[in-house]
Amino acid sequence: MRLWRRELWRLVLLAGLGLLTGWPLGAPGAGLALGLALCLGYHLYQLRALHRWITHDSQSEPPAAAGLWGDLMDRLYRYQKGQRLTQKRLLDTLRRIQESSEAMRDSVVMLDRHGDLEWWNSAAEQMLGLKPALDRGHHITNLLRDPRFVDYFHRRDYREPLTLASPIDERRVLQFQITLYGDDERLLMARDITRLHRLEEMRRDFVANVSHELRTPLTVLSGYLETYADQAELMPPRLARGLASMQEQTTRMQNLVADLLLLSRLEIDRGGADHAALDMAALLEAVRRDAEALSGGRHVIAVELREPRALVGSEQEIRSALSNLAFNAVRYTPEGSHITLSWRPAAEHGACLEVIDDGEGIDPVHLPRLTERFYRVDKGRSAATGGTGLGLAIVKHVLLRHDARLEIDSRPRQGATFRGLFPAARLTEATAG
Ligand code: ADP
């Protein structure tokens, strides 16, 4: 305010001086105009100095000026200095982020809201073959064209990572993970898991080979044991008891080997070749009959069919999963329990395959680990029932291969429900004849 008043006084003073000088000469108007022109000249001069300073050398100190102009220039100078400092700090942070991303062995790719490439580190150049000069601004799916990646990218459900071969080197296995951030932008990370993948492959092959190799000696053993068992009445009772126990254990080992081989097959081959619309009524009825045979009349087993659509899948695999659940229900529930095999509609137009029992149920602490291989709630009891410890692991794998997930609801003494939830895409109106 004070500065404004000073400028006003300057104007009045120059105008007054001009008037007073012009008056004795008989030209007060010309004197006034001269005073105002001087004032205007002064302001124009300062404006020019400001313009020059801003356009040519705004980083240096502003030109010396008094009053309002001096204050204006000082403020502009301070503001610019502050801005430069903030900019420098931001650039430093950005440089540090880029340097740390550069140092990472994983690929980091920043995508804008349309999915176009914005920035990536050098690991991404080596793993994904991105070229700085050519690829900036291109859509990511133009460069990573594998249909599984394109599907993963558009699905926008990035909870699980995606494993694929590198687009430039088939032998390298990469794990992709996308994170959404900011204004719908995406951060794509890719990690080289070739070594881990190899190890996993070796483990699977080893289990598959060992199981396969065990099959023949076990068949021979069981064959001889059967022959001897036919002559059991000729043996002393102590030997006959031993023979029965050997037969029982050989059968257990055969079941174990069969389940291990089935699990290996489920893990190794991709499946899908034998998928067809399944006759759910016939399938449920067949499994019910098998379960009834296992139960020997000790349980009440029913079938409930409320979903008219058929499941598209592998008959052999679905039957194996459903049998495992039904046999578990028979084995782990007391006499007189009710067991229901059900095929019914589920949320979001999907359907679910359920095995419900009203037996003793399972303590919730066991539920998260129940599908692990060889995990048992009660070790002694499971062995006695003849289970291999792989039943639920098989169920989980079969469901995964059918885009379904396994849900287990159970509380002690309130029965158990094992539910496979299938998405609508897995169902068809046409039932198999
Ligand atoms: P197992 O060969 O031991 O049956 P599974 O993987 O099929 O192996 O089952 C794991 C464990 O889950 C079993 O040992 C059993 O304790 C428990 N379980 C499975 N189904 C039921 C059920 N219907 N009721 C109670 N417990 C169950």
From TrEMBL:
Main location: membrane
Entry superkingdom: Bacteria
EC number: 2.7.13.3
Gene Ontology terms, MF aspect: ATP binding; phosphoprotein phosphatase activity; phosphorelay sensor kinase activity
Gene3D superfamilies named among the record's database cross-references: 1.10.287.130, Histidine kinase-like ATPase, C-terminal domain, PAS domain
Keywords, alphabetical: ATP-binding, Cell membrane, Kinase, Membrane, Nucleotide-binding, Phosphate transport, Phosphoprotein, Transferase, Transmembrane, Transmembrane helix, Transport, Two-component regulatory system
Position of the signal peptide: none
Single Gene Ontology BP annotation: cellular response to phosphate starvation
Histidine kinase domain span: 209-426
GO cellular component: plasma membrane
Compartment(s) where it occurs, according to its Swiss-Prot or TrEMBL record: Cell membrane
Pfam families linked to this entry: HATPase_c, HisKA, PAS_8, PhoR
Domain PAS, chain residue ranges per copy: 93-132
Catalytic reaction(s) noted: ATP + protein L-histidine = ADP + protein N-phospho-L-histidine
Function, as annotated: Member of the two-component regulatory system PhoR/PhoB involved in the phosphate regulon genes expression. PhoR may function as a membrane-associated protein kinase that phosphorylates PhoB in response to environmental signals.
PANTHER family xref list: PHOSPHATE REGULON SENSOR PROTEIN PHOR
Name of the protein: Phosphate regulon sensor protein PhoR
